[in-house]
Design brief:
The complex is a heterodimer. By secondary structure, chain A is of the alpha/beta class. Chain A has a single domain, classed as Rossmann fold, CATH 3.40.50.300. Chain A is built from 6 helices and 9 strands. In chain A, α3 packs parallel to α5, α4 packs across α5 and α5 runs parallel beside α6. By secondary structure, chain B is an alpha+beta fold. Chain B has 2 domains: 183 residues, no CATH class; 196 residues, no CATH class. Helices cover 58% and strands 17% of the residues of chain B. Chain B has a 6-stranded mixed barrel with strand order 3-4-9-6-8-7. Chain B has a two-stranded antiparallel ribbon with strand order 2-10. In chain B, β7 and β8 form a beta hairpin. In chain B, α2 runs antiparallel to α9, α9 packs parallel to α11 and α9 crosses α12. Classes of the chains: A alpha/beta, B alpha+beta. Chains A and B meet through α1, α2 and α3 of A and α1, α9 and α12 of B. The structure holds adenosine-5'-triphosphate and magnesium ion.
Amino acid sequence: MPREIIAAGLEQRYGSSVVLRVPEWRVAAGERWLVVGSSGSGKTTLLHLLAGLLTPSAGALSVLGADLRSLAGRTLDRWRSRNVGIVLQALHLVGHLSVRANVRLAQYLAGLPQDDAAIDSALASLGVADKAERLPRELSQGEQQRVAIARAVVNGPALLLADEPTASLDDESAVRAADLLIEEARRRQATLVVGTHDARLKSRFEKTLVLRK
Amino acid sequence: MNLATLSAGYLRARPLQTALSLGLLALGVGVIAAALIVVAQLEATMGRDARGIDLVVGAKGSPMQLILSGIYQLDAPTGNIPLADAMALKKSPMVRKAMPLAMGDSWRGFRIVGAGREYLDHYGAELKAGKYYEQPMEAVLGAEAASRSGAQVGSRFTGAHGLGAEGEEHAAPYTVVGILSPTHSVLDRLVLTPIESVWAVHEHGEKHEAGKAGADDDREVTVLLVQYASPLAAATLPRAINAKSGLQAASPAFETARLFRIVGAGIEALRAFALVLIAAAGASVFIALYSALEERRYDLAIMRALGATPGRLFALLVLEGLVLAALGTAAGLLLGHLFAGALGLWMEAAQQPPVSARHFEAGELWLAAGALLVGVLAAIPPAWRAYRTDVSRTLAAG
Ligand SMILES: Nc1ncnc2c1ncn2[C@@H]1O[C@H](COP(=O)(O)OP(=O)(O)OP(=O)(O)O)[C@@H](O)[C@H]1O
Ligand SMILES: [Mg+2]
């Protein structure tokens, strides 16, 4: 099964306005892409399309060999939970769950066995193993981000998506966060697509897709 | 991790909201449960006490008062009637059983009732110790009267005039000759003695006060408990008795039904109030879950992004409602039994019919089912909104 991403004539419309148009885009398995563009250019929209959180208005989109327009409902939710890891700018850790439980949530919702060893190894590879029993609010912003990445990768997704992972970070942290994502993707041989308008990240990625309004 | 631990974890994270919903539900369920438990026990007790008694004959007055005093030994008697009238009735072919009772005195709040053996047999009395009375001024104690007073066979005591605890003491002492096993009837709370004891005590008193000796033909009894020889008697006997001057006949079935209608109205009001509490609890569950949706929308969206189906979010919220309802209901039933137990203690101290906290009613199951349903229904609108979460839009906004 081809683990690549192929978009052709991809369009997302809201009402009559086209908010995203990707005529032709190919991402080979294991590549690391930066999707850049000004605010409102459709970066988030593209990432949501790749995750199957949105259905394209027009065009073809094949992600990891799955034709996303043919998946729906429960099947799509299950596909996403096992194949796609998502990190968002606002990290969206669940506040009343411990760090460990936040990561376990990804296993549980994917219908996978709840495996503490996998959780510990994901937390350890991101350097937050000692925070496992803490609540998110007891962690620094950078630590929370590491937990969010751990949650995104714990199920071993073939595609790792990150939306503005560095927006609120200073230069040093921004670069470190990008490196963490790249490192995790490389270790797990996952494809990485990061949407950002953060120019600081350009040097870290070999491929760039530029979106225009 | 599963849906139950997720919902429980969420509820724990909002202790105030959770406590409010639980408290309202527990109160509502508790009040209704207590009413169910207490009324059922009182009805059962009153039914048992009145079993086999078709008519109570006594002095004119309130028929309800006659029933309450004559059968249940609760209210003050309406007065006395001539023994001769009672004996005449006893001989009537329409009467199978007639049990004259004489009362007016008490000992430590337990009523002293002068009665024949047939009154004890009527309630299936059995001796636990000693013997039945044979002579005037011998007394047999009901189980509760014995245990609460601590009296033994051979104890002597003097009755106090009147039915309260404060009456003036009579001079003549009673001797306890027997103690009954529990009958779960009115007997348990009585001091029983030959009817002649009561006459003797009061003749003595009257002599003392009025200087007038009691003769056989102005002897009196307080009530006559009657069992019909045939159901036909119901048509004629009460009317015949009520026509006589000074006599009144009252039907326990009719009067207790009337009593429960009156009490029932109060219970209904209480129940309506409790239903309002349960409805408020439902509203509080609804508000707790619904208002929190705004704050939880990222949690719900991220769960969807992590692979949760909309149905699972729906189930999560319904489960939260159900968990609240289940905890509130359990606490409520417990509270209901505690209420009943507290009332039982108070009634026991006041020598009223027994009410136990350990009594269970089938109605409690219905109550629990209803309360659970309220919790689930209250959770459905928020659950529906969670089901409809627009993941992409929510996550894009954050
Ligand atoms: N649900 C929606 N309904 C209508 N318009 C939408 C919706 N979601 C996004 N849009 C519009 O689509 C366009 C692209 O939005 P998107 O969030 O993808 O941009 P972006 O590149 O991620 O911007 P930013 O850098 O600000 O995050 C915007 O003009 C936005 O207003
Ligand atoms: Mg965006």
